[in-house]
Design goal:
The complex is a heterodimer. Chain A has helices spanning about 1-40, 45-50, 65-95, 100-115, 115-130, 135-160, 165-175, 180-205, 235-240, 245-275. Chain A is mainly alpha-helical. Chain A folds into two domains: about 1-45; about 45-275, MetI-like (MetI-like fold). Chain B is about 75% helix and about 0% strand. The two termini of chain B are about 25 Å apart. The chains are: A mainly alpha, B mainly alpha. Chains A and B meet through α1, α3, α4, α5 and α6 of A and α1, α4, α5, α6 and α7 of B.
């Protein structure tokens, strides 16, 4: 009996330790990734990296200025597409809609959210690239914008629903219409949560490569305007990492480090600074 | 929700207040209409997505029918297209990924939800959330420069020496292939399993644990025999979610799977996945049949992830509601 108890205690201690090991392994992956990127890519980040165009094969130096600007343009336009639809759609779900319509909209958003990014790429290709016979910044932004919609929509709704009822009633009791209650009272009360969600959505699509492969395509030079193929940072990482040239591979590490650094920074900022005091309401 | 407007107190003149009110009410109606249009556009976009995938793949569906799904040949020159090698590659890599990720992810989730005090658990969860934010192309880069050499030089020879009698671990060790893609995918989906499982485990009512402990079970026994079974549908949901992610994952897989449409019982063999073939060949597809076959592959992928995501959502909702419902009772 005593031996059996000792055995059970041993099993308990052992298994619980193993779960700790699992957690440690999972978290250490993050630091491995960061470590490798800094070790291999840190040296190649210099002024040229941010200001120069890529050089032809065999010529050393050069940078990714066009990819950085391209990514910025893609993200800007993507937010212009994704954020309004998500934000106003979220307002409709939280404030105006009946439960049936809300179910259909939410279900569609879930469907979009779960769709593989490469499928979103096909969609953008069929809808934007094919009719215009043209790869473009606009097509890439369309794909990324669609990926931003569900995150923005669902979290806008969630945060608006989390605003206490008393605030709305107070505003309406003062004679405000429903719309001005929403805009002046409810949305400001929830804005930190919504901004956090939008930033997280932006950070997520910033690293997407698959939907850009056949919408924005890629470009070794500056992309003028919005209707030309454009380079983007994640696509550059992809192309350079698979290239046989050592020079390019170094640059792939550097670009990866810059990309991941930006994404993690936005994530940390959104989660720690902005989201402080925002308690995510339970649905 | 409250009604659309509430009468204003009669402090202002009645007539002025009435016209003012009706204007306001008009404003509300306009706002309702505009926000409705935005919400409706989400539904429209989703329908359009399904429509485009369906219409875009009409040629191969007419020509190959369901044979598309079970044909092994992928020959763009002869315009003969079958999806089987890609479906096989997608399923095999996802299976390998889950085999590795599920024990590790659930173990870590148990630690975070049951064992670690909050001041340890929350920062760790924060890192896990950050890990989920790492873009797939970065995993691809690490896959190419770190995992592939590691597999070629150490892991695959070791597996061959110990388990080489199994057909799974035979053939030359290229480094690229099903096994490597599965390993990279496993690393990528672990954060999803941990986050969702942790949440589900934390929603298990406290009485369950206390009852088990009061009956004399050890800490592990109460966790493994009471808490985990209570949360099992939700944990299953997290696994489905991870599976859906693994199936649709593109960049990292494309970079390490070897991109050869083969069906082989060996995990060392290079292969191909649905997402990878779309990524590689879409811009190079010549001819409508070729392009539409790729779009049909996209449709297959979409349907697969659609089913899995639906199941996952259902399972997670069922468990968390049961948990919190009983906790309140």
């Amino acid at each position: 009996m005593n031996g059996r108890l000792r055995w059970r205690k041993f099993v308990s201690g052992f298994m619980l330790t193993m779960t700790g090991v699992c957690a440690l392994v999972a978290v250490s992956v993050l630091f491995c990734i960061l470590g490798y990127l800094i070790y291999h890519g840190g040296r190649d980040i210099n002024w040229n990296f941010f200001t120069k165009l890529p050089t032809p094969v065999g010529e050393s130096g050069g940078g990714m200025a066009n990819a950085i600007v391209g990514s910025a343009k893609l993200l800007l336009l993507a937010s212009l597409i994704g954020v309004p639809i998500g934000f106003f759609g979220g307002i409709y779900l939280a404030e105006f809609s009946g439960s049936k319509v809300a179910f259909v909209v939410r279900y569609s958003a879930d469907l979009l959210n779960g769709a593989p990014s490469i499928v979103i790429g096909i969609f953008a290709y069929a809808l934007v690239v094919h009719p215009f016979q043209h790869f473009s910044t606009f097509a890439g932004s369309f794909a990324l914008g669609i990926m931003m919609i569900p995150i923005t929509l669902l979290s806008t709704e969630e945060f608006l629903r989390g605003v206490p009822r008393a605030l709305r009633e107070g505003s309406m009791a003062l004679g405000a219409s429903k719309w001005s209650t929403i805009i002046r009272v409810v949305v400001p009360a929830a804005y930190r949560g919504i901004v956090t969600a939008v930033l997280l959505a932006l950070a997520r699509v910033a690293g997407e490569t698959a939907p850009l492969l056949f919408t924005a395509l890629g470009n070794r030079y500056w992309s003028p305007g919005w209707n030309q193929p454009t380079e983007s940072l994640p696509h550059m990482v992809y192309i350079y990492a698979l290239s046989p040239y050592e020079d390019w591979q170094h640059q792939a590490w550097a670009a990866g480090l810059v990309l991941l650094g930006l994404i993690l920074m936005v994530n940390i900022m959104a989660r720690v600074v902005l989201a402080r005091g925002v308690s995510v309401p339970r649905a | 929700m409250s009604t659309s407007s509430i009468p204003v107190p009669s402090a202002s003149p009645a007539a002025a207040s009435r016209s003012f009110l009706s204007r306001l009410r008009e404003g509300d109606e306009i706002a309702r209409l505009i926000t409705f249009l935005f919400a409706a556009s989400v539904v429209l976009i989703t329908l359009l997505l399904v429509y485009e995938l369906w219409v875009g793949s009409v040629l191969p569906r007419e020509k190959f029918g369901f044979g598309f799904l079970i044909t092994k040949v992928w020959d763009p020159i002869a315009e003969n297209f079958g999806a089987l090698p890609f479906i096989y590659g997608t399923l095999v890599t996802a299976a390998v990924a889950l085999l590795l990720a599920v024990p590790l992810g659930i173990g870590a989730a148990i630690f975070l939800a049951e064992l670690a005090p909050q001041r340890v658990s929350d920062p760790l969860q924060f890192f896990i959330d950050l890990l989920a934010a790492v873009p797939s192309v970065i995993y691809g880069v690490l896959g190419v420069f770190v995992v592939i050499p590691l597999m070629r030089q150490w892991v695959q020879p070791a597996l061959k020496n110990t388990l080489g009698f199994l057909p799974l671990f035979q053939g030359p060790a290229y480094g690229v292939g099903f096994l490597t893609a599965g390993v990279v995918l496993a690393i990528m989906v672990i954060p999803y399993i941990i986050s969702v499982s942790r949440e589900v485990l934390m929603s298990v009512p406290r009485d369950q644990r206390e009852a088990a402990l009061a009956l004399g079970s050890t800490r592990w026994e109460s966790t493994w025999k009471v808490v985990v079974p209570f949360a099992r549908t939700g944990i299953l949901g997290s696994i489905f979610l991870a599976l859906a992610r693994a199936l649709g994952e593109t960049m990292a897989v494309t970079m390490v799977i070897g991109n050869t449409p083969t069906i082989s019982s060996s995990l060392f063999s290079p292969g191909y996945s649905i997402a990878a073939v779309i990524a590689n060949e879409f811009t190079e597809a010549t001819g409508d049949l070729y392009l539409q076959s790729l779009i049909e592959l996209g449709l297959v992928l979409f349907v697969l992830t659609f089913i899995l995501n639906g199941l996952a959502r259902l399972l997670i909702i069922v468990t968390t509601q049961r948990g919190s419902g009983m906790g309140n009772a």
